[in-house]
Amino acid sequence: MGSSPETEHPVKAFGYAARDSSGVLSPINFSRRETGDEDVRFKVLYCGVCHSDLHSIKNDWLNAKYPMIPGHEIVGVVTEVGSKVKKVKVGDKVGVGCLVGSCRSCDQCGADQEQYCSKNVMTYNSSIVITYGGYSDHMVCNEHFIISWPKDLPLDSGAPLLCAGITVYSPMRYYGLDKPGMHVGVVGLGGLGHVAVLFLKALGVKVTVISTNLKKKEEAMSKLGADSFLVSSDQPQMQAAVSTMDGIIDTVSADHPLIPLISLLKPNGKLVLVGAPTKPHELPAFPLLFGRKLVGGSLIGGMKETQEMIEFAAKHKITAAIELIPMDYINTAMERLQKSDVRYRFVIDIANSLKST
Ligand SMILES: [Zn+2]
Ligand SMILES: [Zn+2]
């Protein structure tokens, strides 16, 4: 007889799961493993709602395993630690992002790039073992994948940094778009884009937001501190900005042309994709050759870099703009997220609103 989510492990747990590709979330009793020697168990306080959660529950990437408990922007308070745990103690605030495991022995793991380990374990819907995410009352995780939460970083508005934050921070560092005085474009002003602006400004970089939506100009400039704003459909504006940027972080997951963005880059400029449109991009060689330009990608970040990012955020008072919601609002929140009707991230107030039945 196969084991059910409720009985496969010894410790009772409760959360919200999608049962099929309708993506509707509903309460679920399930179970988690006992606290191993290197494990940290924590009560979940807040969990961000990432756009990936919506794609995953609706099986947009054709890899869904149900029941699926999403959530990979998780913060909480430690309730139990294994005998070998050194990083944190009971009562400490901690975070877990997109990863809960990796092989720990390959070149990528050795270079603190667990995100590129071929055997890494995603926080939910993992293809390697069954994992359940942060839309749940508690988590248990190897201490290597636990982020120590800085004292002065808010828990609710800091939670989205664990995915959205590291997704934009890592490429700024890796591709060298982090030097004061540089000019970097941010395409798309959603969950990822708005924190990209904040990190770049903290690094002393001049930031231009590139968006299809002129309505976002005021917010981008006055609230987030962007230096300028480009409407991507406005040809004269785009033309005037040709060859002015050292780099661009493209956060957009909807289909859109890259050629106009490449033309905004100076020679040696870098266009970094962190959004994932379903249709392949058109990428002609000539605009890259004439200017030695580079188009690259980037996926979240390793554990060491995620800890560094979260400490940088605390130091520079960077948090996400959030709308705090109760657990039972999640299906409405998903409908609104589908329409981009959120400024800029929903965060679930798990501890105060997830009630076991
Ligand atoms: Zn995410
Ligand atoms: Zn590895």
Uncertain segments: none
Beta-strand content estimate: 25-35%
Q: If you compute it from the alpha carbons, what radius of gyration comes out, rounded to the nearest whole angstrom?
A: 20 Å
Q: First CA to last CA: what distance? A: 26 Å
Within the CATH hierarchy, at the fold level, what is the topology of the largest domain?
Quinone Oxidoreductase, Chain A, domain 1
CATH architecture of the largest domain: Alpha-Beta Complex
Keywords: Metal-binding, Oxidoreductase, Zinc
GO molecular function: cinnamyl-alcohol dehydrogenase activity; zinc ion binding
Cofactor: Zn(2+)
Protein name: Alcohol dehydrogenase, zinc-type, GroES-like superfamily, NAD(P)-binding domain superfamily
Q: How would you briefly describe this protein structure?
A:
The protein has 357 residues and is of the alpha/beta class. Helix content is 24%, strand content 26%.
List the helices and strands and how they pair.
Blueprint: E1 11-18, E2 25-32, E3 39-49, H1 51-57, E4 74-81, E5 93-96, E6 99-101, H2 107-110, E7 121-122, E8 138-142, E9 147-148, H3 155-158, H4 164-174, E10 183-187, H5 191-202, E11 206-211, H6 217-223, E12 228-231, H7 235-240, E13 245-250, H8 259-264, E14 265-273, H9 286-289, E15 294-297, H10 303-315, E16 322-325, H11 330-338, E17 345-348, H12 350-353
Parallel strand pairs: 10-11, 10-13, 11-12, 13-14, 14-15, 16-17
Antiparallel strand pairs: 1-2, 3-4, 3-8, 3-17, 4-5, 5-9, 6-7
Helix pairs in contact: 4-5, 4-10
The chain binds zinc ion (ZN) (2 copies).
Residues 50, 52, 72, 98, 163 line the site of one zinc ion (ZN).
